[in-house]
């Protein structure tokens, strides 16, 4: 297949992605995950046929405009592509960085003028000095004084290591992306939210938005971690439960050998009559979710965090009866062949 990009025409090698071919020609396109998830590598087709797989996860309006994910695009015919402004770039500033745990930072950045988002969506945070970008979900709700992100602190992390010293510095914001957001027209629909690690951020955003909207249906939030310390923001979640009737929060700690016994109040999920309580379980997160006594056909489901868990639960809750169009999946992926 012949590719035309920025005045250069070249042939793709067998099984080569569009992104790989562009890089082989000496050009560069921003990217992060190289798995078709983060949407950092979006280009726009000017002519030719775009493979359906290269548009998976994009909004319908973006697909109609010919936007595609270059990292997973394997054309079956000649294609002309160009750079595009699939999402606007806004200038922002790092206002505050604070530890939520040994592993997680809360990062607050200014809300740029004209930036419109929904709680639970994600943005690309850009370090202006070198263009380094990372995707982070938003735990804040529209109208908040700042955009709130939860950043995992990683050994040698390029962004997570830089942010603690970046207060006051300008950053770029691209987005928002994703459809992991609260549906305000469904005040009575039961919500089930499950995530691991900093997958709590978008789920917390959805819960905050639901409570602000006066949601009447039951809300079950599951947060999974390998250690008790990994269940960050537990005090804030407890306060939310105390104020919100119908909200239930369950923490899942999988590695019992790392958890002091006194910190495990209950090994199993409380029944409906115990809704409104916080509990910590030693049962694996997926088992907790699937054992919940609920009618899956009525649920709106949000799954975030580790990609293996998200894929596994997405399939199992669908088979259990959840409607496919009411399952929101936001897997968190590591950088492809790059330092974080």
Write the layout of secondary structure elements.
Elements: E1 2-5, E2 8-11, H1 18-24, E3 42-48, H2 60-64, E4 67-69, E5 79-82, E6 89-99, E7 104-110, E8 122-127, E9 133-137, E10 146-152, E11 170-177, E12 191-196, H3 200-212, E13 219-225, H4 234-243, E14 247-253, E15 278-281, H5 285-291, E16 300-305, H6 307-319, E17 327-331
Summarize the structure in words.
The model is unreliable at 255-276 (pLDDT under 50). The chain has 6 helices and 17 strands. The strands form 3 sheets. The chain has a 6-stranded antiparallel beta sheet. The chain has 340 residues and is of the alpha/beta class. It has helices at 18-24, 60-64, 200-212, 234-243, 285-291, 307-319; strands spanning 2-5, 8-11, 42-48, 67-69, 79-82, 89-99, 104-110, 122-127, 133-137, 146-152, 170-177, 191-196, 219-225, 247-253, 278-281, 300-305, 327-331. A hairpin with a 2-residue loop joins strand 1 (2-5) and strand 2. The two termini are 33 Å apart.
């Amino acid at each position: 297949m012949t590719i035309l990009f920025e005045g250069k025409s070249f042939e793709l090698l067998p099984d080569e992605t569009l992104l790989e071919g562009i890089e082989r020609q000496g050009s560069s396109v921003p990217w992060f995950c190289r798995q078709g998830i983060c949407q950092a590598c979006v280009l726009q087709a000017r002519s030719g046929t775009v493979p359906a797989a290269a548009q998976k996860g994009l909004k319908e309006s973006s697909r109609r405009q010919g936007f595609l994910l270059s990292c997973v695009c394997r054309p079956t015919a000649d294609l002309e592509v160009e750079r595009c402004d699939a999402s606007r770039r806004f200038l922002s500033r790092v206002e505050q960085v604070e530890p939520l745990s040994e592993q997680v930072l809360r990062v607050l950045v200014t809300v740029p003028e004209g930036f419109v988002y929904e709680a639970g969506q994600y943005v690309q945070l850009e370090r202006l000095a070198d263009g380094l970008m990372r995707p982070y979900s938003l735990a804040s709700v529209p109208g908040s004084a700042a955009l709130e992100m939860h950043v995992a602190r990683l050994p040698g992390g390029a962004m997570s290591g830089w942010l603690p010293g970046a207060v006051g510095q300008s950053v770029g914001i691209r987005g928002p992306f994703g459809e992991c957001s609260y549906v305000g027209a469904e005040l009575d629909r039961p919500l089930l939210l499950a995530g691991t690690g900093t997958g709590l951020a978008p789920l917390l955003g959805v819960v905050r938005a639901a409570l602000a909207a006066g949601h009447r249906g039951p809300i079950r939030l599951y947060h999974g971690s390998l250690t008790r310390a990994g269940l960050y923001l537990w005090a804030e979640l407890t306060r939310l439960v105390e104020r919100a009737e119908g909200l239930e929060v369950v923490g899942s700690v999988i590695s019992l050998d790392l958890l002091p016994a006194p910190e495990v109040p209950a090994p199993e999920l409380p029944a409906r009559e115990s809704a409104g309580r916080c509990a910590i379980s030693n049962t694996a997160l997926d088992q907790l979710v699937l054992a919940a006594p609920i009618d899956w056909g009525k649920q709106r489901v949000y799954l975030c965090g580790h990609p293996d868990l998200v894929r596994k639960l997405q399939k199992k809750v669908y088979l259990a009866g959840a409607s496919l169009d009411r399952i929101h999946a936001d897997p968190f992926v590591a950088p492809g062949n790059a330092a974080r």
